Amino acid sequence: MARLNDDAQWIVLMGFIVSFSLFFLAIVVNQSTVVGQTTAEGVLEFPKNDIRDVRYEVLACSDLLPADMAEVQKDMASIAMDRKNAVVSFRISDAPPGSTFKKIYEIHYNNGVTAYNETANY
Amino acid sequence: MVNSDGQLFTIEGVAAGLIMLFSAYLVVSATSIYTPGDTHISDMQLEQLGSDALRMMNTPNTTATAGESLLQNITKKNDGERFKETFLTFCNSTTGGSYDNLQLSADLFYRDTLTKSVKQFHFAHSRNLTGGEHAVRVTEWVHLDLIGGDPLSGAAPGIDTRMQAVLMEVLLWRD
Amino acid sequence: MPDDHAYLSIDFLAGMTIFMVAFIWVATMIPGLLISLQGGTIDYDAVAYRTGVILVEDPGMPASPPWENKDDMQKDEIQRFGLSLTKDNPNILAPNKIERFFCSTSFSYPDDYQRRVIFGERPYSFNISLSTFDGMMNWSVGDVKPDGYGYIRRLVKIKQPSNATINAPAFRNSGEDGNVTGHVFSVHINCTQLLQDVRNPPYQIDPLRERIMVNISNLGGARVFEPANVITLNKIIIYRQNPAQPLVQVRTFDTSYIDGGNAASSLPVIVNDNASVIFPAGFFYGMANENSQLYINYTFKLSLQDLFFNNSFTSPYDYNYSPIRVTQPILKEGVVEVAIW
Q1: A30 touches chain B (CB under 8 A)
Q2: Is the ipTM of this complex over 0.90?
Q3: Is residue A57 part of a domain?
Q4: Cystine design at B138: which of B50, B53, B97, C8 (Cβ 3.0–4.6 Å)?
Q5: Which residue does chain A place closest to C6, by CA atoms?
Q6: Do A110 and A96 fall into the same domain?
Q7: What residue ranges do the domains of chain C occupy?
């Protein structure tokens, strides 16, 4: 029997190998979204403790004199920008007369990935 | 007219290729994770623990202390030893009674109105940083009342004595 | 010899291409089929973290009326466990929630917990433990931990209940009219004042939702003329007065811990030295509201006439925020560990 014409077999084989490796890479990319590592990254990335901390600090400033409050606002804004790469600002004002609340708190936090804005009446 | 003589060989080749592809895929997906590095999970656990520790230190236990928390007291008195001991007790205690092996290094950041800059003051450490530690950073705002007569005003260079908010930053790592 | 040149017709190529594309697409879906079978190892830490957050930072569902007051018959109404005092006070735990959560007679491992705190379709094994730094409280539920597991550790503060310790001789009555056999001592719980003076829940005495303890000590020393007088704690009656309403008797309380005993004795009972009454969490919830005044009246009977522990003609003992009258609720540090495998 005449030999099979195997002239193109190397090309075809290389073609298969290339396609296998592309397929494998596609799987790796696909799998990386399923793995639990992203859960931990998600938890780390969200500044839950930072935001809570800012809120507690703002609540601790409830009854300050306006001069002291201005200094604390500047403290928080500059230290947060310097160390936490976040914009933090807040304002505590008196509620309008006749309202059932005493003060209005406005808190703003933004670390570039997560922004938090709160207006609270106490 | 197309000659369909060699189709069987082609189909055989393609089928063999598919079988190889499929089995290679099954083998590879049966192994576990092949994404780089698992450190995020332990980082997340450490960061949550450190944040909890600082928050609990900054919560007064009763209203009797005029609302001053342990952390505020320690900061005012520049008591690095007490900070280290308390923080390590908080972080290393487990329910089984055994102790974990976490270390810390704490710095205080404050705003100096004279130089209009944010300054750093080293507060405490359990051992010196060698640079090889994989540490997480946790922070807590500390509200300081007038600290004119307190040890902190003499220790931290250029710290104001007015009412201010300072940031306590702790690097936490497992040995 | 057949000619075996591998010429392919176009329609074959087209059909084969469509088949291969479809096959590859199905093959990429196979991970989704297999996840339910083998994806466990990856997410134990994530489930442990989530369980830790649910327990430590959330008050549970339903929060009001609180889930811990539901008895065993109603346990299906509990949608989610949570130990935090309120939504706004994460990491500060309520002691009644802790006791209820770890109660092994009410909830069984693992099903009751799986549905209410662990969640997820996969049946996880777990171990949740809590202890205080001073070692006084140590609770745990679940299996023994194996070698590898997902884990989280949280630090908490546990609110301790308030209690009043009354030294009986300090509240003796006096005068001719006081020399009788029947004596009444009254403890006054001013709900309005308690809930308004301190509004921050971790430091507040909440008579409607928390445990209240009244310990009366040294009753023997309260006798004046007749040291051998036999003291009987006859009745404990609870009165309530709502604003613009008359004083009404609500109910009697029929047990008390006498002389340091471990089991409660039912009244009437003879007392030598001390009597402790523990009103469990939620006891006053149904009978009073935030504006009520509550009076707990102890009725003592002596075998002989005497002056005794009696404040009927002075003023009721005020259960308030004064540290000399009431041991205030303090926060105690503790640690919670969750292990999932």
Answers
A1: no
A2: no
A3: yes
A4: B50
A5: A5
A6: yes
A7: 41-159, 162-318
